[in-house]
Amino acid sequence: MRIRAIGLAAALLLTRAALADMVFTTDGLVLEGQVEEVTAEKVLLRIHHGEDKWGRVTIPRKRVATIEYDLSKRLEDLEEDDYAGRYKLGEWAYRNGMSADAVKILSEIAGKPDVPAEAFLYLGKLAEEAGGTKEALEFYGKYLLAKPGDEATKKKIAELQKLIAGAEAAPAAPAAPAAPAAARVEGLEKGSWRYERWGNKADVSVVTDAQGNKLLQVVSDGTGNSSKVAVTTRKNLDLSGKSKVAFTVYNKSGRPVQLALALITSSGYYESRPIVAKDGWSENLTKNLKGNEYKCQATNWKFNSTIKDLNKTQAIIILLYNGKRKGVFFFDEVTFK
Fold first, then answer.
1. Could you tell me the strand order of the sheet in which 42-48 lies?
2. d(Cα 116, Cα 54) in Å, to the nearest integer?
3. Is residue 178 one of the residues assigned to a domain?
4. Residue 120 lies in a domain
């Protein structure tokens, strides 16, 4: 890692009150500051280290496990009527894959003074990605009122109108697969998840099946330069008393897919050996949390390590090794036992 302006020790002693974002590295460091730039090669983090002194840390992208953005702090720094500033933040959230945050910010300021009409365009795209075709059509229509010459949006509106007409004439499709007939246990699947930008792109959401059971839905569109999709939830957990993680998967890709589990603890990033999820339902899949079967930086990424510091778990990551193939996956009963 290359440190500019300050030393590593100072970077690790930053006060969270003055900062916003958190960068978790593969070797267990947690750096706090404000992410200014993310590229394929690096992450540039602006950090505060006393009174009015600021510095920057450049972190090689390959050493970054995940980034946690704190939009609440960024919103606090904006005046309530700073609509232009809130628009820029909403646009930034959209471009960084933070769909739920982008929707919340942009929906509150769209149509306000100093807010570009593109706020409606982003809301339309977000609604469309989430499957809200009619809502997307409404937002695109508002954008077109301000930008009547936008031919691409006219074409998109025509496509959605055709799609809606076809959907209304066809039987409704279920939002989620019917789970096996057994009592379901709600687990981490109902929490807050997002895809990691170092993996391939995916749409991540929590859906409800006909029985009221919540499932984590991951839709991979096959785009990206990685061999996998990674989705993360941030949880500070003490797993020292747990021996395994269990989960159920519905694989709707039409073929078996390898998947793995990774944990970030205070000691670093640990990834399990892959297991296979067959096409359709795979119930009660498990991974041993105490086994000598995880890869990490200390073992040069060979699968012969145990997970260190389970009592200081910071994040859980599900990895889908589906390459560039499209697919839809549902996760249920994600629990530690």
1. 2-4, 54-60, 42-48, 30-38, 21-25, 64-68
2. 32
3. no
4. yes
How many CB atoms are located within 10 Å of the residue 128 CB? 19
Count the Cβ atoms, other than its own, within 10 Å of residue 27: 14
CATH number at 329 reads 2.60.120.430
Same domain, 229 and 207: yes
Q: Are residues 291 and 198 in the same domain?
A: yes
Phi-psi region of 219 (alpha: psi -120 to 50; beta: other; left: phi over 0): beta
Assessment of whether the complete model's pTM goes beyond 0.70: no
Strand runs (DSSP E) across the chain, as ranges?
A: 2-4, 21-25, 30-38, 42-48, 54-60, 64-68, 194-195, 202-208, 214-220, 229-237, 244-251, 257-265, 268-272, 275-277, 280-288, 294-295, 313-321, 327-336
User: pLDDT, tens digit, for every residue of 18-61?
Assistant: 446 888 887 777 788 888 888 878 899 888 766 567 788 899 98
Residue 52 domain boundaries: 2-68
Task: Give the model's confidence band at 252: pLDDT under 50 very low, under 70 low, under 90 confident, else very high.
Answer: confident
Residues 145 and 254 in one domain: no
Domain count, the chain: 3
